[in-house]
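## retry 2 of 3
previous attempt timed out at serialization; input unchanged, resubmitting
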Amino acid sequence: MDLDEAVDAVRERVSRWEHGGDRDAVTGPGVLAPAGRIWRTVLTGQGATVEAVYALAGLHWARTVALGQDGPIDDLWGALVLYGAVEGAESVRVPDEVRALLSRNPSNYDLSFVGPEHWGRRAAHLLREVQVDEDLDKLDEVIELFNGTVEAYTPDHEYWAGDLSNLSLALHMRYYRRGDPTDLDRAERAARDAVRGTEPWDPKLPLRLDNLSAVLQYRARFTGDAVAWAESVRLSARAVRSTPPEHHLRAMFEERLASARIGRYELTGDQGELDQGIEELERTVARTPENDRALATRRSRLGGAYHSRYLLTRDPRPLHRAIELLTQGADATPLRSPDRAASLAGLSKALLSRFEETGAVQDLDDALLAGERAVKEGPGEKAGTAGLARRADHLHTFGRALFAASEYAHDRSFLDRAVEAFREAARTGAASADLPGHPGAPAHLASLGEALMARNFGLLGQVTPFGLTDLVHETAQLEWERRKASGPVLDPAELEDVREAYECLLRAVEQTGPYHPDLGGRLRGLSSLSYSLYRLHGRRGDADRALELSERAVRVTPPRHPQRAHAVLLLAFLLAELGGAAETDRALSLWEGLVTDPSVQPSSRASAAAYAARARCRRGAWAAAVDLYAQALDVLPTLVTPAQDTRAQEELLTLWSGLAGEAASCAIAAGNPDRAVELLEQGRGVLWSQLLDSRTELDALQAVEAELAERLTVVERELNTSPEAGASEPWWGRIADGRLTLAAEREDLVAQIRTLTGFEDFRRPAGIEELRQAAADGPVVLVVSSQWRTDALIVTTSATRTVPLGVGHPELLARTQRYLTALQRYETGPRDALAQVTLNLIVTRTLEWLWRDIVEPPLRALELTTSPPDGAGLPRLWWCPTGLLALLPLHAAGIPESGAGTAVQAGECVQDLVTPSYTPTLRALLDSRAAARSSAPGDGMLVVGLPSTPGYGPLPQVEDELAALRAAFPTSTVLRGERATRQAVREGLRTHRWAHLSCHGGQDLTRPSQGGVVLHDAVLTVADLRSDHFAQGDFVFLSACQTALGGAGAPDEAMAVTSALQYTGWRQVVGTLWSVGATTAAEVTAGLYDALASGGTLDTGEAAQALYEAVRELRRAGHPPRVWAPFVHSGI
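## retry succeeded, writing output
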């Protein structure tokens, strides 16, 4: 602006005030810049004309009048100074009030109290205030004042560069709050001019470099400008180098540099930048005093950086640190601070990551709460451009938490809310039209597309890592095909959702830069949707598009990027699914490449190994497939750890259910039954094996490395306590869960121990020679079924034999589903005569089928086809069924008698040929046998009885059982009714050798860890028992319903109460598969204890025989299988 333009602008504003009363014309924004230009000529004497001085004097007088007595006095002084300088020239133009004041006080005024110098001092004072109170009106005044000063001073003036730098700071503060892009442009120009106007030796240069770096970071963050990130790193590094470590601004400069490095990492994926950023932030936080307002923000930023490190490395320790810092930062940030919403959003993201890592429901709840508060406390719907961009990001964060909640709870309402949150995020981001390159916009679109896909395609709209359980997957497949056969699969509203999903995912890809690290993930999302459309319509074009997009996703994802494995997995899956032999060859190459790459995440390695193994099996390459299956099973314990929530463990194991069975079937097909047994042991009972590991192998280690042994003992003891303990407090009142850190430390300790001589196989799966010892008292029959074949493996102390079975896997799935459905209907419905007849029909058919196709062939191979002569005991045999077979009553298989009262037909029922017992794994049987001991003085019986339980029906047989047990064990401990609390029973189980529980029981087939026995105040669940150790336990009778039934999702994990008690120390357990009648329970109890009890003690050496003799009495009495078949014996 030249002088003439400035004079004209000032005169025009004064005229509007004098003739129209427009007060804003002389006091509002934009007036001080032209005034400052005129002041420059006055202060320097460079061509200040009388007209220019009159114009400037008139402006100051007009401001004095307009502002009145409440206005600052500097305008009056300015008017007096300026009118005094030209009064003699044309005194008639001087207002009368001014002439009067000049006549009374003609002395000169100090120019430092008027005009630009005063503006600068006032602006600096207000700038300090606005950084605390965030008053936007005050911020506008700061900018107006500095607009005037930078026009008033020449570049060589001592104040010019400093005022420019302060103007830049104020402008980008206003941009942050209002989002006007012109403010950001002006801020950058002012900051650059300030740096150029500062001499290299000026001590204020670092501060001005930092200011320019801050402006560039704003531009980079909201526009995705990679060049701006790079320049910000360079400028901040220069500012840090130019500042001594003890300087009070050094921490601020280091924080800015760290922020630039982390932003650059987010754009480029350069881990070195992230690591340096974390180091610099750690130093910054360490030197920031506790009473410094910046500490909360710095902690939150450091927490966000640690979260980024976790996302890159999947090491849980940075995540623990991130949540701790973000919790502290969010709690300490003032409510009105614009940084609070960002802190809450960062906390929500980190909590969601930990939920995904551990399954801890409290973390999901807290992530939802923090995400919702970030939306409420952040910028509103009427915010400026940058504010809308931040609001969109907060909505997106909240949407991710809602989406996770929908998957966890299987609740459509959460998914609908997630769709709306993502949709609003996309709309809000689009409203900031001046920021088309805002990097969050594609993410919002991609998430909306993903949520819409999930809402309309369900299970079959997703490509899972390995596949769901066979039972669930088959059901979903049948439902999908049924809907396709009966007409349109999706209704018009659903089709509209699908169209919107495709449009969102396509736009997300189009708006993502060619080198953006998230491009590959967005291409994968579009590829998955194209594949789903192919499944929906059968159009080959959709299949080709899915392959093309997946190929591109692999090409654009760098080799070491954490998302590359997902891209390769999808491409390999599509090649094998949609292509021919050549494409399958390529898929195998891709899968096997992932398996051998140590940088690939364990879950992806396991998925790749399992998929490759399946492909090899389909080609008959059984031996090669065995190695691949083994590598997948090797990874499984690292995916399911004690650090995780019980439900998360169950869901992960459900996802991988059937893998061990497939591996064993493959080994059998390869002619290696011993290897099949080893693989079955390795891939089943994963959680229980970890529990047993923590209680064994430590004695030898203690003798060699006591310190390692003691630390491992402490760590595993803490890990094996209940994951939910103490997790009820909200995020702002508790320190983050340390279980992730403990789990990581456990891995480190085990790795150290394996480096010791003689401990190379510490905590590794047992070999066949050790496993065969489980058959010391009789053969163990493992029954395994998979898509490849169905076999029985007979394990003796000298060999493993394979007995092929004539049942296919689809038939097994169908029969198991019918059997479980009948059980559930019986347990949840009225148990009238019709229900009993229906259940008996299903049970009878199931027992007949089991006898014919599953049980009789291995018995024939063992030459156990006839009953022994009278007086001879039946031989022992242990069943170790796998997969869904673990849910079936193998111990009772046979051809039931034709009518009541008829003699038992020998040779047509398992229980007439052998004394059958169960063991969940060979190792469980080995451990139970190793812990066996003889009776000793002080051994006691715990008797628990609940004739009535709040919320449940009466159990009339309980009193009879209690009376019989008191008579047999006069010194027994009796917990009856209200005394039978969960805590009391757990303590009793720890201190007694024998136990009898007569109460209600139940099982949840979908969440078997929540099944258990119902006590007076709560259910004693499988999950509760996992954290106990009953070293003295010898025999326990569970006279309660469904205590021997595991879960349908992960049957190999033996999540039944009987198995839980065996794994936790009880050597023999009796339980039931379904509800039994009151009379039946009492009769079996009486028969068993009559055979075993004597003199107040219990001889459990023949417990299995005694149980089945009592059951045989029921059969002799003509009772149907529904009555006698549910009783099972587990253990030695």
